Amino acid sequence: MKKLYNAYSKSSIKLSKFLSYYFKGKIHDGYCPICESQVFFIIKEDWLRDFYYCLQCNSIPRQRAIIVALNLFYPEWRKLKIHESSPSGISSDFIQTNCPEYVATHFFQDTPLGDYKHGIRCENLENMTLADSSFDLIITQDVFEHVINPSAAFTEISRVLKPGGAHIFTMPWYPQMKKSLQRARLVNNEIEHLVEPIYHGNPIDKKGSLVTFDWGIDFTDYIYTHSGMSTTIYLIKDKKMGLEADFLEVFVSRKLIDKVLSKTL
Ligand SMILES: [Zn+2]
Known about the structure:
By secondary structure, this protein is an alpha/beta fold. About 25% of the residues lie in helices and about 30% in strands. It has two domains: about 1-60; about 60-265, Vaccinia Virus protein VP39 (Rossmann fold). It has helices at about 1-10, 15-25, 50, 60-75, 90-100, 150-160, 220-225, 260-265; strands at about 25-30, 35-45, 50-55, 80-85, 100-105, 115, 120, 135-140, 160-170, 180, 185, 190-195, 200, 210, 215, 230-235, 250-255. β8, α6 (about 150-160) and β9 (about 160-170) form a beta-alpha-beta unit. α4 packs parallel to α5 and α6 (about 150-160) crosses α7. Zinc ion (ZN) binds near residues 34, 35, 56, 57 and 59.
């Protein structure tokens, strides 16, 4: 009970509200992979993907999931060279803090590619100035539903990854859809909406980010076609780590090592 009181006192939630969550069973204890300690989780609304918080770091499920995936599949990730495109939130902060060779980039419309704005390098995922085979891991968190030309982005990611490297990412997807839906495209430098536009929150743009693709079950084939990378879909559900939500999957696209490939062929 003392630990619960401590968690409450560090939160910005009113006591009456906190107690009502508690008595409705919306607060439970567990282990947060970002705090790396025992914490309490709180479910503030039914849409767990955005409202199932760690009371200590405020992380949401997909942020905890990508860290769990890094720990499981790349346990030495702290020593690797990692590029994250369009970082945001506590999971990006956590990787940056723990990985000396972490490079964050954003695409700023008003900054030349490769230059810096507010200390952050400007890169367009579809046309990066980063060298070939220069990173072990590339991370994107909820980015690929907003990329206007994802085929170019996946090709670029494969180019920039070292052989044996991987693109680790989260995004909403709809496995019941056999074919991905392109929602918008660029025609003569103007956005053309193919269906009713939808926007998500964007930390660097008040207007929000246009959703360009609803990804279906065919997206792994799409990645393979445009990059040669093979994608594995991981879903880890574990209430003790606050891992429960829609779109909780972590996708890992691996760039093959040519030598291994030629030996096996
Ligand atoms: Zn936490």
